[in-house]
Each structure stands twice: as C-alpha cells, then as structure tokens.
Amino acid sequence: MVRMLLHWLLSAVALLVVSHYLHGFEVRGGLEPALIAALVIGLLNATLGLVLKIVTFPITIVTLGLFLLVINAAMILLASHLVTGFHVSGWIPALWGAVVLALVGIVVRVGEKKV
C-alpha cells in the first residue's frame, strides 16, 4: 500500500516537473490536478491500457517494447481530456511524459527491492 501511494505521489511530482520543462504539457493549479491526473493515468493504464497492450503485443515484440510508450502516451492524452487542469497538446509531449513516468516507475521498483 505504501509503495502504491509513493508511486502515485512521485508520478504526480513527475507530471509537475515535466510541465515546467516541456512545452505543450501543462498542469495548472498545483499539486491537486497533478494527483488527479496521475490517478486517472494509472486507472486508464490498468484498464484500457491493458487491453491495448494485449491487442498490440505483436507490434510490441517487433519494436522491442518501444510501442508500450505509444500506448502510455495515448493514455496520457486521454487523461488530459478527462482531467481539468491537465492539458497535453500533442503526441510528442505525451511521449516525453510517458518516458518520464516509465522512469519514475523504474525508480520505485528499484527502491522497493532495496528496502
């Protein structure tokens, strides 16, 4: 449970950091919209993202897993349409956001193994 809350908080902070450095990726209103956006992205990845990952498995194999970033970017774009205060203006910012969120996930998993 603590790991899940930590991952959620770090994902929200990552969204805030990306919004400061990447044009076209905006979080307006501070931490609250970032927390809501991180939650919505997580829920979308767990539901619709899972279905898309299963359907596009052959493409994922051919691209050595890089297509998973495209699916995660699509979930970020969808979340930006659902969450007030969170806006992503295209595929390129969404892809960079997917990369950063993937790196946050790696950090959380590595930290979990050390604890």
List the keywords.
115 residues; mainly alpha; 2 strands; 78% helix
Individual helix count? 6
DSSP, total strands? 2
Low-confidence stretches: none
Taken from the alpha-carbon principal axes, the silhouette is globular
Main β-sheet: number of strands, strand sense, barrel status? 2 strands, antiparallel
End-to-end separation = 14 Å
H/E series, N to C?
HEHHHHEH
- Cα-atom radius of gyration: 14 Å
Output the strand order for the largest sheet.
1-2
Average pLDDT, rounded to a whole number, is: 92
Strand percentage: 5-15%
Based on secondary structure, the structural category is mainly alpha
How many individual domains? 1
User: What is the percent of helical residues?
Assistant: over 70%
Question: What do you see in this structure?
Answer:
This protein is mostly helical and 115 residues long. The chain has one domain (2-114). Helix content is 78%, strand content 5%. It contains six helices and two strands. The protein has helices spanning 2-21, 31-46, 48-55, 57-62, 67-82, 91-114; strands at 25-27, 86-88. Strands 1-2 form a two-stranded antiparallel sheet. The protein is globular. The two termini are 14 Å apart. The relative contact order is 0.18. The mean pLDDT is 92.
